[in-house]
Amino acid sequence: MPSFFIDRPIFAWVVALFICLIGAISIPLLPVAQYPIIAPPSISISTSYPGASPENLYNSVTRLIEEELNGASGILNFESTSDSLGQVEIIANFQPGTDTSAASVEVQNRIKRVEARLPRAVIQQGILIEEASSAVLQIITLNSTDGSLDEVGLGDFMIRNVLGEIRRIPGVGRATLYSTERSLRVWVDPAKLVGYGLTADDVNKAIAAQNAQVASGSIGAEPSTATQRTSALVLVKGQLSSPEEFGAIILRANADGSTVRLRDVARIEVGGLSYQFNTRLNGKPTAGLSVLMSPTGNALATASAVEEKMKELSRFFPANISYEIPYNITPVVEASIKKVLTTLLEAVVLVFVVMFLFLQNIRYTIIPTIVVPVALLGACTTLLLAGYSINMLSMFGMVLAVGILVDDAIVVVENVERIMAEEGLPPKEATRKAMSQISSAIIGITLVLMAVFVPMAFFPGSVGIIYRQFSVTMVAAIGFSAFLALSLTPALCATLLKPVAAGHGHARRGVFGWFNRMLEGGKDGYSRTVGFSLKRTGRLMLVYAALLVGLSFAFVSLPGGFLPVDDQGFVTTDVQTPSDSSYGRTEAVIEKVEKYLAQRPGVDNVTFLTGFSFSGQGMNTAQAFITLKDWSERGPKESAAAIVDGINRDLGSSIRDAKISALQPPPIDNLGNSSGFSFRLQDRGQKGYPALMRAADQLIADANASPVLQKVYIEGLPEAGVVNLVIDREKAGAFGVTFEDINNTISTNLGSNYINDFPNRGRMQRVVVQADSRDRMKTEDILNYNVKNAYGKLVPFSSFATVEWSRGPTQIAGFNYYPAVRISGEAKPGFTSGDAIAEMEKLAGKLPRGFGYEWTGQSLQEKLSGSQAPFLLALSVFVVFLCLAALYESWTIPLAVLLTVPLGIVGAVVAAMLRGLPNDVYFTVGLITIIGLAAKDAILIIEFAKDLRKEGKPLVEATIEACRLRFRPILMRCSSAI
Fold first, then answer.
1. Per-residue pLDDT reduced to its tens digit, 665-676
2. 130: closest CA among 96, 105, 99?
3. Of the ranges 463-472, 556-565, 658-667, which one carries the lowest mean pLDDT score?
4. Which of 826, 461, 480 lies closest to 677 in space, CA to CA?
5. What CA–CA distances, in Å, run from 212 to 203, 351, 712, 757?
6. Dihedral (Cα; 888, 893, 898, 903), 10-degree rounding
């Protein structure tokens, strides 16, 4: 093959240009992301049961759904949250590679089987099943420029004109409105109801009966008489459309002709459907919409599509409504890729400088440099065909590949240059001779390098996805590099190089002369060292064995990790006021946090979602999404880590009425909400909620006292004061009151009751009945509610019920069908995430029997990667051994090659220990690369030693001479790789 291209250099150029052309076409078609889609695909199941307590919600709704999820095909784990607002959310994670559409269908079918057992109110509210993502991609806000629209008006506009459009964008998994649409609110007055002898249930039934769609039919429809000449629809206005029409609903018609209408006992308005959430942007109320990616979405493409859609929609907005996207995670993606591209360019330049220093001829240097872009463009084509993206991992592979890509070309050029300098052959003949010596070596080292990286592509799970992206990039680049070394490189050597007289290969004066003298001195010293070592192999093998023992100990003691936590340009802050706080109390704390962040250097925008946090939902929660200024505008004191530390330090000490927790996001989307660990303590022995909380408190106390851990806390809402309405069922029965009537009255007055819908400006919106705010502020108000008994008389709750205060959960979490407590934390400075995981497992082992634990999110993937790494390294070494055995038809030569590998690993482990770096995914990738490079250098020496042995030289002399001949190219290759 080399001879073919040596004689046909234009053909070699055409092939290379075709590779460049296809690669250039592929680049715009490749999606761009910070990381590939690593997190397991997830399905979200959500519903609501207004007014239900967390315990009732968990037992009557959540547990029934969880039972059906057990055994779903491909399910990895599932986690549930049941809160005091009557909201249920279950996230079911599936094995990587699972088809999310098929998983969604199976989940829907399983829930259909259990729907008949769920409360009627839950079925009425509906069960939403959709592809889930925990990573908030963007937050969109709408503002009223003239102040004419309140939050409800803005939220209603957003749900009518924006929400549906955003949900249809490819890549969007979920779009959630953190405001409210409009609804017809009927605020009943319990005292007036008593005065008229009515109950809340009477109101519900009257609205349901009189606000109804009527299927009225038509006159003259078939079958008709023979004389009928016309037909027409009959219209009956059944649905009401304004507060005035609802106010005229007749609740009771008296015998004297008087009537009691809805407006007599209630205040009716078009208000908000829910007052659970609010959005604030830089201290001002707005309507907010969070955009979450689908599990298969691409962050950059999805965010760009959302921005384009908002520009398009804004052209149809009224003049007094504007929009902003104050929170967007994609700038870090663009910055990361830009930084890697800069590093890639710097690597190419440095490799060029190194080669020029060694080869000392611009023609010699250009030839290997040409190979780099051609091979990288070929790798881009492979990525497109494999369905991958341009991301940190694939780009990291390309940066690392630059030093490897020039290797084959360096081997060719250096050998051609040596033959020309030593023998005085013209370029074409020197190239032919050089290729006859090294073609088999090039093929051998290519197979070995590919064999090193190929096993990475077959590892399962999320960690396998990380390795696969890197593996495909490296194997493709190496394959193209080897092909070019056998085609384009010899063609260029034969046509571009100029003849050199024998003995005149390198400069003798100046900087190059000094460098050549140093290199020759090093070569001679290296040859003497090899000869000295060959006479003392026994003692050196003892030293080698000692190094292996030390390496094993150092490798095991190296702390574990997953991926480094970087400054991504944004942070989050969780705000929790005491569990019994009202919204007004929480809002006062939010204003203090906003005031602090407004004067904090490095902060650009602050978006607060009140009523929502990653810990849970409630009136005492809020979550701030803080966008930082561009990295170029921030110094070390304004880094994400420094800002997080400042928020926790300053606000933690100055705000006593709330718990403030600022966190950096995890490096991988959808693997948790913070960069710390994610631990789930489970009640596996049916110990009960109080015992589970005692165990959690004990574990957290031990963890925060540990020298390894810090900021360990329960990721959820604490217990709160609860009102127990104790109903004496015997007394209620004696009064002729059924429990169903009691339940309906309580649900309507306190929890609100959705009756039906009404048309409002082209959209069907809900009619909701609830007691007016002043009639549900105190516990005494509950006892004043009345229920109608079997005899049509009103009976006050005080006749058969009492009120008691106690404490109870505001949120119940479950993990894999067990009641659980979500615990988060992080390692102290000087310790890694792997140290934190090991410490938590040790402390959890001290808990009483009946309590178990599991890891989730990034922590689960870190454990999987840690357990897979040794096997991955061993598999790579074994595959290299088999390839070398087949290449050399020998079992001993591969052993000689692989004996060099531990020496390279020793350097990597020592460097990692000195820098305090963990044994993470990047470290594992680096070790695998070292295996290939070390084997490659050994192959080059062995190939030349074999040729010298064929010429009749003794084994020791051939070995020393091969080491001397390959000293310069190996040194040049290593310098290029570094």
1. 877 665 555 557
2. 105
3. 556-565
4. 826
5. 14, 78, 54, 9
6. -130
